[in-house]
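It is worth pausing here to work through a concrete case rather than discussing structure prediction in the abstract. The textbook approach is simple: state the sequence, then state the predicted structure, then interpret. We follow exactly that order.
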Amino acid sequence: MVTRGNRRYHDRVAGRYDDIYDRPYWRFYREISWRHLKGFLPVERPAEAADLGCGTGWFGRKLIKSGFDVTFLDPSGGMIEKARALVDKAGKRGREHHFVQGEMEDLSAIADASQSFVTAQGDPLSFCKDPKKALRELHRIMEPGAVTVLSVDSRIAGVRSLLESSSPDKALELLRTGRTTWLAQRKEEAFPMKMFDPDELRSLLEKTGFEPLSTIAKTCLVHRRNEQWLEDPKQHKRLLLAEEKVHKLPWYFGLAGHLQIAARKHAH
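Step two, the predicted structure:
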C-alpha cells in the first residue's frame, strides 16, 4: 500500500506539480513516453481506459483527446482534484471521465474486465508494497487481449547513483532486493520504493497473466543535465529520432533512469 509519506508529498506539491516538471527535459520525456504508448492503443473507439497513478492527469487527458472514456486514479486527493480541474478546463470532448482516490493494489472501484487500455506513468508500480498484487488487480480490470503500458524506476540507475556514496552498503542492498527509499527533502515525506531490472519486470508480468510486448528505457541519450540541447527545435527532432533508434536496445538500458513496458493480457 502507498505510504503516508508518499501521499503527504504528493498532496503538498499537487498545485504546482506541473510547474515543477515544465522543463525541456521532462517535456521530451513525456513525448518519448507517449510516442511509445500510442502504438498500443486499441483501434476501436470510443472505449474505456484508465490512467493509474494519474497525478495531474497528463496522460489521461491525452487519452480523452484520443477518443477514450477515462478513469483517473491516484492515492493523493490533491492530485485527483488538480486532475479534475484540468480535465474540466480542457473540456470533455464528448467523453466520460471518472476520478477515484485509490491505489494500484486496490482497484475495487473499477469493474472486472472493463478496460480496453490502461497506463500507469510516473512509476506508481514502483511505489507499491506488493507489486504482484497490483498487477493481479490490473489484470482483473482489463479486457482479455487488452494492453497496458507501465513506467517504473530502473534498478540499474539506482545502483549506479548509490555507488557514488561513501559506503557501498545501500547500493548492494538495492542490488539484492530492488528496494530503496525515495530521498525527500522533508524527512516525513520519504517513502519506500521498488526499482526493477528489465528481466524481473517481464517475469513478474508473465507470472500475473500478461505477455510482454515491448520494453524501452527512458531516456538514454538526453538527460536533465543537458536539457539545453532541446531548446533548438531542429536539434530536438534529431535527438528524438536518435532516442527512438536506441531506447529499445537492451545494451542502452543502463543509461536511463526509467523503464517503460507494454504487455497484453492473455485473451484466454
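Step three, interpretation. The chain has a mean pLDDT of 93. The two ends are 29 Å apart (CA to CA).
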